[in-house]
Amino acid sequence: MHTRPTLLAGTGLALAFVCAVAFDAAFGLGVDQVVLIGGVLGAVLGLMPSKEPRWQLAGFGTGLGAAWVSYGLRAAVLPDAPTGSAMAAGGAVVICVLVAVATSDRVPLWAGLLGIAAMAGTFEHTFDPATSRFMADSLAAVSTAGLAAALGYLAAVVVGSRFKRIDPGPVAYNAPAPTWDEILSTYKSRRAQ
Fold first, then answer.
1. In angstroms, rounded to a whole number, what is the distance separating the alpha carbons of residues 115 and 109?
2. CB count, 10 Å around CB of 110?
3. What is the structure's pLDDT at 95?
4. Low-confidence residues of the chain, pLDDT below 50?
5. How far apart are CA 103 and CA 22, in angstroms?
6. Residues 96 and 116: beta-carbon distance below 8 Å
7. Residues 6+ away with beta carbon under 8 Å from 45
8. Which tens digit of pLDDT belongs to each residue from 62-110?
9. What is the per-residue DSSP string for the chain?
10. CB of 149 closer than 8 Å to CB of 41
């Protein structure tokens, strides 16, 4: 049955998140507030098939760093208004796009966007551009987002390695769309496996 690996992988990830919150209560790691957003984004990063996961991790780190820089610009330079937020958000995405283009897509754009989402999900609700505690607050957000994402990533890699993944193979961006017969043939061959 094809749903069994999904059920087992999802259950393993859920148990990892429950354990993270339980350990947080015991050791005061500070991840209980962000374990879901950071952990899930890290799990998505870990579950994506890749021959070179280092590039995915580099993209995630790029996005996390780009979001941190954009929050710093919002706190120091940009106006405390929707236009300032829009410029900072756009700037973070542009950084990820430039890194992806500069590396010929070895550092995937989607991994950078996951990093931006991890930082925004953990820091946006506590961000206050009027405060002088930006460095301390933002570094705490980066570290907790990174810790939660690392937990999700490791859980996904450990759990996902127990199940056969379908490698999509090389992506051809300019390839013609498959015909309906090709799609059905691929589907039937995968079901037969």
1. 10
2. 15
3. 95
4. 1, 166-167
5. 40
6. yes
7. 56, 57, 60, 111, 114, 149, 152, 153, 156
8. 999 999 999 988 888 888 788 888 998 899 999 999 999 999 989 999 9
9. -THHHHHHHHHHHHHHHHHHHHHHHHH--S-TTTHHHHHHHHHHHHHS--S-HHHHHHHHHHHHHHHHHHHHHHHHTS-SSHHHHHHHHHHHHHHHHHHHHHTTTSS-HHHHHHHHHHHHHHHTTT--TT-S-HHHHHHHHHHHHHHHHHHHHHHHHHHHTTS---------TTSPPPPHHHHHHHHHHHHH-
10. yes
Looking at residue 99, what is its pLDDT?
95
List all residues 6 or more positions away from 138 whose beta carbon is below 8 Å from its beta carbon. Answer: 68, 71, 72, 123, 127
Predicted model pTM: 0.73
**Side chain identity, residue 47:** L
